[in-house]
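Quick one - first record:
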Amino acid sequence: MNENISQNINWFPGHMAKTRRLISENISFCDIVIELLDARIPNSSKNPEIDGLTSTRPTLTLLNKSSLADPDATGKWIAEYRERGKYALAVDCITGDGLGRIPSACASILKAKIAGWNDKGMSGRKIRAMILGIPNVGKSSLVNRLCGTKKARVEDRPGVTLSKQWVSAGKDLDLLDMPGVLWPKFEDPETGKNLAFTGAIKDSILDTETLAGELCLRLFTLYPDLFLTRYKLTAEATEGKGAWELLETVAKKRGFLISGGEPDTERAASIVLDEFRGGKIGRITLECVKQRDQ
């Protein structure tokens, strides 16, 4: 699966070469960068090249989809960012939680610059923010929420935003929505897995049964109570089982069987992935602060 992920990244529209150029061409028109990360996988959902491309501007990091993530883990991530001297907020572009703090956070970060504008007779000048993040992390949903109307196309699949677009987000903020950015090769195979688990990589290029089996094992390892409860399993029924065996166990428990009574792992895989991504298994974070890059 990992090789499959690495070898098929080029299908993303607006892949890294094009997006790198767009960022370089437009960063001078922006005052601040708003980078969205997936609160369930803060490390894996961060393109390591973005910091270098946007180093001339301050960044506000948003841990999006926080309603799907473990709140204790999200709190630790926010604290970690602040300890590094970075600005971070937990938000959710579906529920709207935390979004109201974004304009004031941008203004606070740019306090000195805004004072300079006022001294030059530019009082009331709108802050211009570049929105960056990997595909399917919620950029278009953020834009639509902040604008209060549907300005950007939104679908629950990666690669929907194909080009840049400026939109107004009220009297204080203009947003430059950019295409999703993924890097051409993952140095760490776990990064590819995490992105695939959360739906940042198209399922159509993956072996979803293998993927779902590995997700079952990860969930059983990190959040055993949530996993067992959701699929009505017992510790005895899952003891010592590997990824594929766990997926088969889920299929059997849900009554997903094919001819001969064999477990329908394809159907079970679709269910497990959908239920994880939709938060039906519980609020889960796959990366802890201690796993961050040093």
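second record:
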Amino acid sequence: MKLKFMSRTWEMSTTISIWLAISNTMLVVLFFVAANKIFTVKDRVVLVPPYLNEQMSVGWNSASENYYKSFGLYFATLVGNITPSNVDFVTDILSTFLEPEIYASIKPKLISLSKDAIFRESGGTSIFTSEHITYEPETSKVFVAGTMSMASYAKKQPDLKNVIYEIAIHLKNGKPMISYLDSYEGGQPHTLKWIAANPEQAKPIKEQAK
């Protein structure tokens, strides 16, 4: 009997089996790593819109400063240019971007405005012209400063005032959402630096969180 040959063959088979087990284990590990990446890592899209000179990157739960500024400007322009004919349209658009608790407080005001006979019959319009945009990374807020012009058939000259829209924007599953909205007269954005210098004029944190 060729016992020496059989012994060598058995040892070789054992070695091959061990290496196959190791390689299969490595393949299983690589499979789970790849699967985890597919299901947990979201793609980031880099955009260069035709109306901007700089690119914007948009991720699943975050975006670049240019993106937040662009969306803040869009929203401020939408809210700041309300007419009797588009107030219902603006109300519907806001429902897709505002967090439920914010929309619940703003919707009644817009509906009341849309049903206001004086507003509709007087042809009242508000025209917001943006002049400067500031982004605050610490609070994810965009401050859009500009001039608000209020006009109607009853007025010969429109009322002009400096207005700032303060908007907290975050991305939820790739979609921009607004968690805080405020507007006030003046030319100074209420940033963290401004709040630190003017604590008596700043709104309480609880009120800002609404």
